[in-house]
Amino acid sequence: MKKILVVDDAATVRMYHKKILEDAGFEVEEAVNGLEALEKALLNDYDLYIVDINMPKLDGYSFVKKLRETENVRQSPVIMVTTEAEEKDMDKAFERGANFYFIKSVKPEEFSKYCKLLTGVVYE
Amino acid sequence: MPIKKKEEKVIEIKEERRKAQRDFEGLTNQLSSKNPTERRWAARDLAEYKEASSYLIEQLMKEKDITVREIIISSLLSIGDEIAISGLINCLKSDDAHLRNSAIEALKQIPEQVAPYIENLLHDKEPDVRIFTINILESLRHPKVVKWLIDVIENDENVNVCATALDLLVELGTEESIQAIKKVKERFKNEPYIQFASDIALRRIGEQ
Amino acid sequence: MNNRCTLKNEPEITITDDDFERFREFFYRKTGIMFDQSKRYFVDRRLIERIKATGNNSFKSYFIFLRLESSGKELQNLINALTINETYFFREEYQFQCMVNRKLPEIVLRKRRGDIIKIWSIPCSTGEEPYSVAIYLLEYWKDIDKWDIEIISSDIDTNALENAKKGIYSERSVQNLPKSIIQKYFRYLGNGYYQICEELRNSVEFTRVNIVDTNETKRYRGFDIVFCRNLLIYFDDLSRKIAVENLYDTMNPGGFICLGHSESMSRISPIFKIRKFPEAIVYQKPLEEDK
Predict the structure, then answer these.
(1) CATH no. for residue A46?
(2) N or C: which end of chain C has fewer CB within 10 A?
Protein backbone atom coordinates (compact mmCIF):
# COMPACT_ATOMS: atom_id res chain seq x y z
CA MET A 1 0.00 0.00 0.00
CA LYS A 2 1.26 3.43 -0.83
CA LYS A 3 1.85 5.69 2.13
CA ILE A 4 1.03 9.37 2.28
CA LEU A 5 2.00 11.99 4.85
CA VAL A 6 -0.63 14.69 5.39
CA VAL A 7 0.83 17.85 6.86
CA ASP A 8 -1.58 20.46 8.21
CA ASP A 9 -2.03 22.17 11.55
CA ALA A 10 -5.83 21.90 11.41
CA ALA A 11 -6.99 18.58 12.82
CA THR A 12 -10.26 18.53 10.88
CA VAL A 13 -8.49 19.19 7.59
CA ARG A 14 -6.13 16.31 8.28
CA MET A 15 -9.13 14.13 9.06
CA TYR A 16 -10.79 15.19 5.83
CA HIS A 17 -7.76 14.44 3.67
CA LYS A 18 -7.18 11.23 5.55
CA LYS A 19 -10.68 10.01 4.90
CA ILE A 20 -10.50 10.77 1.19
CA LEU A 21 -7.14 9.08 0.85
CA GLU A 22 -7.94 6.03 2.94
CA ASP A 23 -11.11 5.54 0.93
CA ALA A 24 -8.90 5.63 -2.15
CA GLY A 25 -6.76 2.83 -0.75
CA PHE A 26 -3.83 4.69 0.74
CA GLU A 27 -2.19 4.39 4.12
CA VAL A 28 -2.12 7.82 5.73
CA GLU A 29 -0.01 9.37 8.46
CA GLU A 30 -0.19 12.88 9.85
CA ALA A 31 2.00 15.73 10.99
CA VAL A 32 0.91 19.03 12.50
CA ASN A 33 3.63 21.20 11.03
CA GLY A 34 6.66 21.17 8.77
CA LEU A 35 9.03 20.26 11.58
CA GLU A 36 7.13 17.20 12.64
CA ALA A 37 6.80 16.29 8.97
CA LEU A 38 10.58 16.41 8.56
CA GLU A 39 11.07 14.16 11.56
CA LYS A 40 8.57 11.66 10.27
CA ALA A 41 10.09 11.79 6.80
CA LEU A 42 13.43 10.86 8.35
CA LEU A 43 11.91 7.89 10.08
CA ASN A 44 9.52 6.58 7.43
CA ASP A 45 9.26 6.21 3.68
CA TYR A 46 6.38 8.12 2.20
CA ASP A 47 5.21 7.93 -1.39
CA LEU A 48 3.61 11.36 -1.33
CA TYR A 49 3.47 14.46 0.83
CA ILE A 50 0.35 16.64 1.10
CA VAL A 51 1.47 19.94 2.56
CA ASP A 52 -0.46 22.92 3.89
CA ILE A 53 1.26 26.26 3.61
CA ASN A 54 0.37 28.04 6.79
CA MET A 55 1.62 26.16 9.79
CA PRO A 56 3.47 27.16 12.94
CA LYS A 57 7.18 26.41 13.53
CA LEU A 58 7.87 25.51 9.90
CA ASP A 59 5.57 26.58 7.10
CA GLY A 60 4.90 24.64 3.91
CA TYR A 61 7.43 26.41 1.70
CA SER A 62 10.20 26.01 4.23
CA PHE A 63 9.33 22.36 4.70
CA VAL A 64 9.61 21.59 1.00
CA LYS A 65 12.91 23.39 0.79
CA LYS A 66 14.35 21.50 3.75
CA LEU A 67 12.95 18.22 2.53
CA ARG A 68 14.66 18.57 -0.81
CA GLU A 69 17.92 19.53 0.89
CA THR A 70 17.92 16.59 3.27
CA GLU A 71 19.74 13.41 2.41
CA ASN A 72 18.50 10.04 3.70
CA VAL A 73 14.95 11.06 3.01
CA ARG A 74 12.69 9.67 0.33
CA GLN A 75 12.26 12.44 -2.24
CA SER A 76 8.65 11.76 -3.08
CA PRO A 77 6.28 14.15 -4.85
CA VAL A 78 4.88 17.06 -2.87
CA ILE A 79 1.39 18.48 -3.34
CA MET A 80 0.89 21.90 -1.75
CA VAL A 81 -2.53 22.81 -0.46
CA THR A 82 -3.14 26.49 -0.78
CA THR A 83 -5.78 29.18 -0.50
CA GLU A 84 -7.03 31.14 -3.49
CA ALA A 85 -5.11 34.21 -2.51
CA GLU A 86 -1.90 32.26 -2.29
CA GLU A 87 -2.27 30.65 -5.68
CA LYS A 88 -0.18 33.38 -7.21
CA ASP A 89 2.71 32.35 -4.96
CA MET A 90 2.83 28.81 -6.22
CA ASP A 91 5.99 29.32 -8.25
CA LYS A 92 7.68 29.86 -4.91
CA ALA A 93 6.60 26.35 -4.02
CA PHE A 94 7.75 24.90 -7.31
CA GLU A 95 11.10 26.63 -7.00
CA ARG A 96 11.60 24.86 -3.71
CA GLY A 97 10.72 21.51 -5.14
CA ALA A 98 6.98 21.04 -4.89
CA ASN A 99 5.34 19.18 -7.77
CA PHE A 100 1.71 20.14 -7.76
CA TYR A 101 -0.90 22.13 -5.88
CA PHE A 102 -4.54 22.10 -4.93
CA ILE A 103 -6.74 24.93 -3.77
CA LYS A 104 -8.67 24.45 -0.54
CA SER A 105 -11.02 22.84 -0.03
CA VAL A 106 -10.12 19.90 -2.18
CA LYS A 107 -12.83 17.93 -3.88
CA PRO A 108 -12.53 14.22 -3.07
CA GLU A 109 -12.60 12.73 -6.55
CA GLU A 110 -10.13 15.04 -8.18
CA PHE A 111 -7.87 14.91 -5.19
CA SER A 112 -7.65 11.16 -4.98
CA LYS A 113 -7.22 10.97 -8.74
CA TYR A 114 -4.12 13.14 -8.62
CA CYS A 115 -2.74 11.41 -5.58
CA LYS A 116 -2.97 8.11 -7.40
CA LEU A 117 -1.33 9.60 -10.44
CA LEU A 118 1.57 10.98 -8.46
CA THR A 119 2.15 7.73 -6.61
CA GLY A 120 2.07 5.63 -9.72
CA VAL A 121 -1.16 3.87 -8.89
CA VAL A 122 -2.17 3.21 -12.44
CA TYR A 123 -5.24 1.12 -12.37
CA GLU A 124 -7.54 0.03 -9.61
CA MET B 1 40.12 10.60 35.60
CA PRO B 2 39.09 12.15 32.28
CA ILE B 3 36.03 13.77 33.78
CA LYS B 4 37.18 17.01 35.19
CA LYS B 5 35.56 19.67 37.24
CA LYS B 6 36.47 23.18 36.29
CA GLU B 7 38.80 24.76 38.83
CA GLU B 8 37.33 28.22 38.97
CA LYS B 9 33.78 28.31 40.26
CA VAL B 10 32.89 31.56 38.59
CA ILE B 11 32.05 31.25 34.94
CA GLU B 12 33.23 34.39 33.21
CA ILE B 13 31.34 36.03 30.45
CA LYS B 14 33.65 35.93 27.50
CA GLU B 15 35.50 39.09 26.56
CA GLU B 16 34.04 39.54 23.11
CA ARG B 17 30.62 40.01 24.59
CA ARG B 18 31.94 42.86 26.68
CA LYS B 19 33.55 44.51 23.70
CA ALA B 20 30.38 45.85 22.17
CA GLN B 21 28.46 48.25 24.32
CA ARG B 22 25.63 46.42 25.91
CA ASP B 23 23.59 49.49 26.55
CA PHE B 24 20.50 50.38 24.60
CA GLU B 25 22.21 52.32 21.85
CA GLY B 26 24.89 49.76 21.41
CA LEU B 27 22.34 47.00 21.26
CA THR B 28 20.16 48.64 18.65
CA ASN B 29 23.26 49.07 16.50
CA GLN B 30 24.17 45.45 17.00
CA LEU B 31 20.69 44.52 15.89
CA SER B 32 21.72 45.28 12.32
CA SER B 33 25.14 43.71 12.52
CA LYS B 34 26.27 41.55 9.61
CA ASN B 35 26.84 38.70 12.00
CA PRO B 36 23.67 36.75 12.81
CA THR B 37 24.98 35.69 16.21
CA GLU B 38 25.50 39.31 17.18
CA ARG B 39 22.04 40.19 15.92
CA ARG B 40 20.62 37.34 17.93
CA TRP B 41 22.37 38.38 21.12
CA ALA B 42 21.27 41.96 20.63
CA ALA B 43 17.68 40.90 20.02
CA ARG B 44 17.79 38.83 23.17
CA ASP B 45 19.26 41.53 25.37
CA LEU B 46 16.84 44.14 24.05
CA ALA B 47 14.01 42.23 25.73
CA GLU B 48 14.86 44.23 28.82
CA TYR B 49 14.15 47.58 27.21
CA LYS B 50 10.59 48.79 26.80
CA GLU B 51 11.70 51.26 24.14
CA ALA B 52 13.05 48.50 21.96
CA SER B 53 9.79 47.41 20.32
CA SER B 54 9.95 49.58 17.23
CA TYR B 55 13.58 48.61 16.57
CA LEU B 56 12.77 44.96 16.98
CA ILE B 57 9.77 45.16 14.67
CA GLU B 58 11.80 47.01 12.06
CA GLN B 59 14.49 44.35 12.14
CA LEU B 60 11.91 41.56 12.12
CA MET B 61 10.59 42.79 8.80
CA LYS B 62 13.97 42.48 7.13
CA GLU B 63 15.47 39.59 9.07
CA LYS B 64 16.15 36.49 7.01
CA ASP B 65 17.82 34.33 9.62
CA ILE B 66 15.34 32.03 11.33
CA THR B 67 17.15 31.94 14.65
CA VAL B 68 17.30 35.71 14.88
CA ARG B 69 13.64 36.01 13.95
CA GLU B 70 12.63 33.59 16.65
CA ILE B 71 14.50 35.53 19.29
CA ILE B 72 13.13 38.85 18.10
CA ILE B 73 9.66 37.45 18.51
CA SER B 74 10.40 36.15 22.00
CA SER B 75 11.69 39.57 22.97
CA LEU B 76 8.66 41.32 21.50
CA LEU B 77 6.46 39.03 23.54
CA SER B 78 8.39 39.82 26.69
CA ILE B 79 7.98 43.52 26.09
CA GLY B 80 4.36 43.07 25.02
CA ASP B 81 3.52 46.74 24.59
CA GLU B 82 1.20 48.28 21.99
CA ILE B 83 3.96 48.78 19.46
CA ALA B 84 5.05 45.17 19.78
CA ILE B 85 1.54 43.88 19.35
CA SER B 86 0.48 46.07 16.47
CA GLY B 87 3.79 45.31 14.81
CA LEU B 88 3.14 41.59 15.09
CA ILE B 89 -0.39 42.07 13.82
CA ASN B 90 0.94 43.84 10.76
CA CYS B 91 3.01 40.76 10.05
CA LEU B 92 -0.24 38.94 9.32
CA LYS B 93 -0.32 40.81 6.04
CA SER B 94 3.24 39.96 5.08
CA ASP B 95 4.07 37.97 1.97
CA ASP B 96 6.55 35.95 3.93
CA ALA B 97 4.87 32.76 5.12
CA HIS B 98 7.31 32.11 7.93
CA LEU B 99 6.93 35.63 9.26
CA ARG B 100 3.15 35.47 9.09
CA ASN B 101 2.98 32.16 10.84
CA SER B 102 5.47 33.12 13.53
CA ALA B 103 3.39 36.22 14.19
CA ILE B 104 0.25 34.13 14.50
CA GLU B 105 1.98 31.84 16.95
CA ALA B 106 3.29 34.74 18.93
CA LEU B 107 -0.06 36.46 19.15
CA LYS B 108 -1.63 33.28 20.49
CA GLN B 109 0.52 33.69 23.58
CA ILE B 110 -0.87 37.07 24.62
CA PRO B 111 -4.65 36.72 24.67
CA GLU B 112 -5.49 39.73 26.78
CA GLN B 113 -3.43 42.11 24.74
CA VAL B 114 -4.64 40.75 21.42
CA ALA B 115 -8.34 40.56 22.26
CA PRO B 116 -9.13 44.22 21.50
CA TYR B 117 -7.84 43.76 17.97
CA ILE B 118 -9.60 40.52 17.17
CA GLU B 119 -12.97 41.88 16.21
CA ASN B 120 -11.59 44.32 13.68
CA LEU B 121 -9.33 41.70 12.22
CA LEU B 122 -12.25 39.31 11.84
CA HIS B 123 -13.81 41.90 9.57
CA ASP B 124 -10.73 42.68 7.54
CA LYS B 125 -11.41 42.81 3.81
CA GLU B 126 -8.75 40.19 3.10
CA PRO B 127 -10.10 36.67 3.63
CA ASP B 128 -6.61 35.43 4.42
CA VAL B 129 -6.24 37.95 7.24
CA ARG B 130 -9.56 36.75 8.63
CA ILE B 131 -8.29 33.19 8.36
CA PHE B 132 -5.08 34.04 10.19
CA THR B 133 -7.05 35.78 12.89
CA ILE B 134 -9.07 32.65 13.43
CA ASN B 135 -5.79 30.74 13.63
CA ILE B 136 -4.83 33.02 16.49
CA LEU B 137 -8.00 32.00 18.27
CA GLU B 138 -6.85 28.37 18.35
CA SER B 139 -4.72 28.71 21.45
CA LEU B 140 -6.23 31.93 22.58
CA ARG B 141 -7.44 31.58 26.10
CA HIS B 142 -10.24 34.07 26.05
CA PRO B 143 -13.90 33.70 27.02
CA LYS B 144 -15.22 35.28 23.82
CA VAL B 145 -13.61 32.78 21.47
CA VAL B 146 -16.67 30.64 20.84
CA LYS B 147 -18.87 33.65 20.27
CA TRP B 148 -16.42 35.04 17.74
CA LEU B 149 -16.36 31.74 15.89
CA ILE B 150 -20.14 31.59 15.78
CA ASP B 151 -20.23 35.10 14.37
CA VAL B 152 -17.87 34.08 11.62
CA ILE B 153 -19.79 31.04 10.47
CA GLU B 154 -23.01 32.95 10.58
CA ASN B 155 -21.82 35.97 8.66
CA ASP B 156 -18.63 35.49 6.69
CA GLU B 157 -19.21 34.97 2.98
CA ASN B 158 -15.90 33.30 2.25
CA VAL B 159 -16.10 29.53 2.39
CA ASN B 160 -12.52 29.02 3.55
CA VAL B 161 -12.88 31.51 6.36
CA CYS B 162 -15.94 29.58 7.52
CA ALA B 163 -14.05 26.32 7.10
CA THR B 164 -11.28 27.55 9.37
CA ALA B 165 -13.76 28.64 12.00
CA LEU B 166 -15.55 25.31 11.74
CA ASP B 167 -12.32 23.47 12.34
CA LEU B 168 -11.98 25.24 15.65
CA LEU B 169 -15.59 24.60 16.54
CA VAL B 170 -14.95 20.89 16.06
CA GLU B 171 -12.76 21.23 19.11
CA LEU B 172 -14.52 24.00 21.00
CA GLY B 173 -18.12 23.80 19.90
CA THR B 174 -20.82 23.95 22.56
CA GLU B 175 -24.60 23.71 22.45
CA GLU B 176 -24.85 27.39 21.59
CA SER B 177 -23.03 26.75 18.32
CA ILE B 178 -25.44 24.12 17.07
CA GLN B 179 -27.82 26.40 15.20
CA ALA B 180 -25.03 28.32 13.54
CA ILE B 181 -23.34 25.12 12.44
CA LYS B 182 -26.53 23.78 10.93
CA LYS B 183 -27.01 27.04 9.07
CA VAL B 184 -23.52 27.10 7.61
CA LYS B 185 -23.96 23.51 6.55
CA GLU B 186 -27.06 24.56 4.67
CA ARG B 187 -25.41 27.65 3.22
CA PHE B 188 -22.51 25.72 1.71
CA LYS B 189 -24.44 22.66 0.63
CA ASN B 190 -22.05 21.89 -2.20
CA GLU B 191 -18.84 22.17 -0.31
CA PRO B 192 -17.75 18.70 0.82
CA TYR B 193 -15.34 19.96 3.47
CA ILE B 194 -17.96 22.15 5.09
CA GLN B 195 -20.32 19.17 5.19
CA PHE B 196 -17.62 16.98 6.65
CA ALA B 197 -16.51 19.44 9.32
CA SER B 198 -20.04 20.43 10.30
CA ASP B 199 -21.02 16.82 10.79
CA ILE B 200 -18.07 16.16 13.04
CA ALA B 201 -18.70 19.30 15.04
CA LEU B 202 -22.35 18.44 15.54
CA ARG B 203 -21.53 14.89 16.47
CA ARG B 204 -18.99 16.02 19.05
CA ILE B 205 -21.44 18.41 20.59
CA GLY B 206 -23.80 15.48 20.82
CA GLU B 207 -26.30 16.63 18.30
CA GLN B 208 -26.27 13.66 15.97
CA MET C 1 -39.46 10.21 61.83
CA ASN C 2 -37.01 12.51 60.26
CA ASN C 3 -34.52 10.00 59.27
CA ARG C 4 -34.68 10.51 55.63
CA CYS C 5 -31.53 9.42 54.01
CA THR C 6 -31.13 11.26 50.78
CA LEU C 7 -28.75 9.38 48.62
CA LYS C 8 -26.69 11.92 46.87
CA ASN C 9 -26.66 10.67 43.37
CA GLU C 10 -23.40 11.79 42.01
CA PRO C 11 -23.66 11.41 38.26
CA GLU C 12 -21.04 9.17 36.80
CA ILE C 13 -18.59 11.07 34.72
CA THR C 14 -17.92 9.26 31.51
CA ILE C 15 -15.66 9.94 28.59
CA THR C 16 -17.39 9.18 25.32
CA ASP C 17 -15.55 8.13 22.18
CA ASP C 18 -16.08 11.61 20.76
CA ASP C 19 -14.78 13.19 23.96
CA PHE C 20 -11.70 11.03 23.74
CA GLU C 21 -11.09 11.99 20.14
CA ARG C 22 -11.52 15.64 20.84
CA PHE C 23 -9.18 15.45 23.80
CA ARG C 24 -6.65 13.32 21.98
CA GLU C 25 -6.34 15.78 19.09
CA PHE C 26 -5.85 18.64 21.46
CA PHE C 27 -3.23 16.80 23.48
CA TYR C 28 -1.42 15.69 20.36
CA ARG C 29 -1.31 19.22 19.09
CA LYS C 30 0.13 20.49 22.34
CA THR C 31 2.60 17.76 23.15
CA GLY C 32 3.06 15.52 20.15
CA ILE C 33 1.92 12.60 22.23
CA MET C 34 -0.80 10.62 20.52
CA PHE C 35 -2.80 8.28 22.70
CA ASP C 36 -4.09 5.31 20.84
CA GLN C 37 -7.12 3.24 21.81
CA SER C 38 -5.04 0.94 23.97
CA LYS C 39 -4.42 3.84 26.32
CA ARG C 40 -8.16 4.57 26.78
CA TYR C 41 -8.41 3.24 30.29
CA PHE C 42 -5.30 5.07 31.42
CA VAL C 43 -6.35 8.38 29.88
CA ASP C 44 -10.01 8.17 30.89
CA ARG C 45 -9.14 7.55 34.52
CA ARG C 46 -6.78 10.44 34.74
CA LEU C 47 -9.10 12.75 32.86
CA ILE C 48 -11.91 11.92 35.26
CA GLU C 49 -9.60 12.64 38.17
CA ARG C 50 -8.76 16.05 36.77
CA ILE C 51 -12.39 16.78 35.92
CA LYS C 52 -13.34 16.18 39.54
CA ALA C 53 -10.29 17.93 40.92
CA THR C 54 -11.20 21.10 39.05
CA GLY C 55 -14.78 21.03 40.25
CA ASN C 56 -16.30 20.16 36.89
CA ASN C 57 -18.98 17.58 36.42
CA SER C 58 -18.55 16.69 32.78
CA PHE C 59 -15.84 16.32 30.21
CA LYS C 60 -17.39 19.09 28.16
CA SER C 61 -17.21 21.71 30.87
CA TYR C 62 -13.74 20.58 31.86
CA PHE C 63 -12.50 20.79 28.30
CA ILE C 64 -13.70 24.35 27.83
CA PHE C 65 -12.07 25.26 31.11
CA LEU C 66 -8.86 23.57 30.03
CA ARG C 67 -8.76 25.33 26.69
CA LEU C 68 -9.62 28.77 27.89
CA GLU C 69 -7.87 29.04 31.25
CA SER C 70 -5.45 31.85 30.72
CA SER C 71 -2.71 30.70 33.05
CA GLY C 72 -2.51 27.33 31.37
CA LYS C 73 -2.01 25.79 34.78
CA GLU C 74 -4.57 23.04 34.30
CA LEU C 75 -2.89 21.93 31.11
CA GLN C 76 0.32 21.59 33.03
CA ASN C 77 -1.44 19.57 35.73
CA LEU C 78 -2.94 17.38 33.08
CA ILE C 79 0.37 16.77 31.39
CA ASN C 80 1.84 15.87 34.76
CA ALA C 81 -0.95 13.40 35.35
CA LEU C 82 -0.61 11.79 31.94
CA THR C 83 3.13 11.44 31.71
CA ILE C 84 5.23 9.20 33.81
CA ASN C 85 8.28 10.93 35.10
CA GLU C 86 10.60 8.70 36.95
CA THR C 87 14.31 9.07 37.05
CA TYR C 88 16.78 6.21 37.26
CA PHE C 89 20.23 5.27 36.02
CA PHE C 90 20.63 4.66 32.32
CA ARG C 91 17.10 5.85 31.65
CA GLU C 92 16.53 5.94 27.89
CA GLU C 93 19.88 4.30 27.41
CA TYR C 94 19.75 4.59 23.62
CA GLN C 95 20.53 8.30 24.06
CA PHE C 96 23.81 7.44 25.78
CA GLN C 97 24.59 4.89 23.11
CA CYS C 98 23.97 7.57 20.54
CA MET C 99 26.28 9.87 22.46
CA VAL C 100 29.28 7.56 22.39
CA ASN C 101 28.65 6.02 18.99
CA ARG C 102 27.60 9.04 16.95
CA LYS C 103 27.66 12.41 18.60
CA LEU C 104 31.07 12.33 20.23
CA PRO C 105 32.89 11.03 17.15
CA GLU C 106 31.47 13.96 15.20
CA ILE C 107 32.20 16.47 17.91
CA VAL C 108 35.83 15.49 18.28
CA LEU C 109 36.38 15.97 14.56
CA ARG C 110 35.97 19.65 15.18
CA LYS C 111 38.17 19.78 18.27
CA ARG C 112 41.89 20.22 18.66
CA ARG C 113 44.10 18.45 21.17
CA GLY C 114 43.64 19.94 24.57
CA ASP C 115 40.11 21.20 23.92
CA ILE C 116 37.63 20.02 26.47
CA ILE C 117 34.29 18.44 25.79
CA LYS C 118 31.46 19.96 27.78
CA ILE C 119 28.25 18.17 28.58
CA TRP C 120 25.24 19.61 30.36
CA SER C 121 22.58 17.70 32.17
CA ILE C 122 19.69 20.02 32.76
CA PRO C 123 17.54 19.26 34.66
CA CYS C 124 19.78 16.89 36.56
CA SER C 125 17.19 16.29 39.27
CA THR C 126 18.76 14.01 41.88
CA GLY C 127 21.77 13.23 39.73
CA GLU C 128 20.95 9.96 38.01
CA GLU C 129 21.41 11.49 34.60
CA PRO C 130 24.78 13.24 34.94
CA TYR C 131 26.27 10.29 36.79
CA SER C 132 24.85 8.01 34.09
CA VAL C 133 26.59 10.14 31.49
CA ALA C 134 29.85 9.95 33.39
CA ILE C 135 29.70 6.20 33.84
CA TYR C 136 28.71 5.63 30.25
CA LEU C 137 31.62 7.66 29.00
CA LEU C 138 34.10 5.91 31.24
CA GLU C 139 32.81 2.47 30.36
CA TYR C 140 31.80 2.70 26.75
CA TRP C 141 33.51 5.57 24.98
CA LYS C 142 36.57 4.23 23.28
CA ASP C 143 38.25 7.62 23.12
CA ILE C 144 37.67 8.52 26.76
CA ASP C 145 41.37 8.71 27.49
CA LYS C 146 42.08 11.15 24.69
CA TRP C 147 39.87 13.95 25.91
CA ASP C 148 39.03 15.87 29.05
CA ILE C 149 35.34 16.11 29.75
CA GLU C 150 33.45 18.54 31.88
CA ILE C 151 30.02 17.55 33.09
CA ILE C 152 27.79 20.25 34.48
CA SER C 153 24.55 19.29 36.18
CA SER C 154 21.93 21.88 36.84
CA ASP C 155 18.48 22.09 38.27
CA ILE C 156 16.14 24.74 39.58
CA ASP C 157 15.47 22.69 42.69
CA THR C 158 18.20 23.13 45.28
CA ASN C 159 16.99 20.18 47.33
CA ALA C 160 17.39 17.93 44.34
CA LEU C 161 20.88 19.34 43.84
CA GLU C 162 21.85 18.63 47.42
CA ASN C 163 20.70 15.07 47.00
CA ALA C 164 22.56 14.78 43.76
CA LYS C 165 25.75 15.86 45.46
CA LYS C 166 25.28 13.22 48.13
CA GLY C 167 24.72 10.64 45.42
CA ILE C 168 22.71 8.12 47.42
CA TYR C 169 20.28 5.94 45.49
CA SER C 170 17.77 3.17 45.99
CA GLU C 171 17.68 -0.32 44.48
CA ARG C 172 15.02 0.86 42.11
CA SER C 173 17.19 3.62 40.80
CA VAL C 174 20.12 1.36 39.94
CA GLN C 175 18.17 -1.65 38.74
CA ASN C 176 19.02 -1.11 35.08
CA LEU C 177 22.72 -1.15 35.73
CA PRO C 178 24.83 -4.23 35.11
CA LYS C 179 26.13 -5.66 38.39
CA SER C 180 29.70 -5.02 37.34
CA ILE C 181 28.98 -1.32 37.04
CA ILE C 182 27.30 -1.13 40.39
CA GLN C 183 30.28 -2.81 41.93
CA LYS C 184 32.73 -0.54 40.23
CA TYR C 185 31.11 2.83 40.82
CA PHE C 186 28.89 2.46 43.85
CA ARG C 187 29.35 1.63 47.49
CA TYR C 188 26.59 -0.37 49.14
CA LEU C 189 25.40 1.42 52.24
CA GLY C 190 22.96 -1.19 53.47
CA ASN C 191 19.16 -1.11 53.58
CA GLY C 192 19.00 -1.15 49.81
CA TYR C 193 20.94 2.07 49.30
CA TYR C 194 23.97 2.70 47.16
CA GLN C 195 26.24 5.68 47.01
CA ILE C 196 28.11 6.81 43.95
CA CYS C 197 31.86 6.72 44.50
CA GLU C 198 33.52 9.85 45.76
CA GLU C 199 35.65 10.29 42.71
CA LEU C 200 32.60 10.68 40.49
CA ARG C 201 30.80 12.86 42.96
CA ASN C 202 33.75 15.20 42.94
CA SER C 203 34.11 15.34 39.20
CA VAL C 204 30.64 16.60 38.34
CA GLU C 205 29.78 20.22 38.89
CA PHE C 206 26.36 21.08 40.30
CA THR C 207 24.70 24.43 39.80
CA ARG C 208 21.30 25.96 40.23
CA VAL C 209 19.73 27.34 37.06
CA ASN C 210 16.35 28.46 35.86
CA ILE C 211 16.43 27.54 32.21
CA VAL C 212 13.77 30.09 31.31
CA ASP C 213 15.75 32.96 32.80
CA THR C 214 17.93 34.34 30.04
CA ASN C 215 20.07 36.25 32.50
CA GLU C 216 20.97 33.01 34.23
CA THR C 217 21.60 30.90 31.16
CA LYS C 218 23.72 33.67 29.65
CA ARG C 219 26.55 32.65 31.95
CA TYR C 220 26.84 29.23 30.38
CA ARG C 221 28.52 28.50 27.10
CA GLY C 222 30.61 26.08 25.15
CA PHE C 223 28.44 23.00 25.48
CA ASP C 224 28.88 20.18 23.02
CA ILE C 225 26.06 18.03 24.30
CA VAL C 226 22.99 19.05 26.27
CA PHE C 227 20.62 16.59 27.87
CA CYS C 228 17.31 18.32 28.51
CA ARG C 229 15.02 15.40 28.96
CA ASN C 230 11.46 15.31 30.19
CA LEU C 231 11.38 18.90 31.35
CA LEU C 232 10.15 21.02 28.48
CA ILE C 233 7.02 18.97 28.12
CA TYR C 234 5.84 20.45 31.40
CA PHE C 235 6.30 24.04 30.28
CA ASP C 236 3.80 26.26 28.52
CA ASP C 237 4.42 27.16 24.88
CA LEU C 238 6.17 30.44 25.45
CA SER C 239 8.43 29.20 28.25
CA ARG C 240 9.43 26.23 26.15
CA LYS C 241 10.37 28.45 23.27
CA ILE C 242 12.42 30.75 25.46
CA ALA C 243 14.10 27.85 27.25
CA VAL C 244 15.17 26.28 23.98
CA GLU C 245 16.45 29.60 22.64
CA ASN C 246 18.42 30.04 25.84
CA LEU C 247 19.93 26.59 25.50
CA TYR C 248 20.84 27.28 21.88
CA ASP C 249 22.99 30.17 22.97
CA THR C 250 24.90 28.05 25.46
CA MET C 251 25.92 25.54 22.81
CA ASN C 252 28.82 25.34 20.43
CA PRO C 253 27.99 25.26 16.72
CA GLY C 254 27.53 21.61 15.84
CA GLY C 255 26.54 20.81 19.42
CA PHE C 256 23.75 18.34 20.10
CA ILE C 257 20.72 18.57 22.31
CA CYS C 258 18.60 15.59 23.33
CA LEU C 259 15.06 15.75 24.58
CA GLY C 260 13.07 13.00 26.27
CA HIS C 261 11.87 10.12 24.21
CA SER C 262 8.32 11.37 23.79
CA GLU C 263 9.35 14.98 23.26
CA SER C 264 10.05 16.77 20.03
CA MET C 265 11.32 20.13 18.86
CA SER C 266 8.42 20.13 16.44
CA ARG C 267 6.26 21.75 19.03
CA ILE C 268 8.91 24.07 20.32
CA SER C 269 11.23 25.68 17.81
CA PRO C 270 12.70 25.37 14.30
CA ILE C 271 16.11 26.74 15.23
CA PHE C 272 17.82 23.38 15.58
CA LYS C 273 18.67 21.09 12.72
CA ILE C 274 17.04 17.68 12.87
CA ARG C 275 19.50 14.80 12.64
CA LYS C 276 18.63 11.18 12.45
CA PHE C 277 20.96 8.57 13.89
CA PRO C 278 20.17 4.87 14.06
CA GLU C 279 19.57 5.16 17.79
CA ALA C 280 17.60 8.37 17.90
CA ILE C 281 16.51 11.62 16.40
CA VAL C 282 18.65 14.39 17.83
CA TYR C 283 18.83 18.12 17.35
CA GLN C 284 21.93 19.96 16.34
CA LYS C 285 22.92 23.60 16.50
CA PRO C 286 23.89 24.46 12.94
CA LEU C 287 27.54 24.79 12.11
CA GLU C 288 28.19 28.31 10.94
CA GLU C 289 28.36 27.36 7.27
CA ASP C 290 25.17 25.45 6.79
CA LYS C 291 22.40 27.64 8.19
Answers:
(1) 3.40.50.2300
(2) N
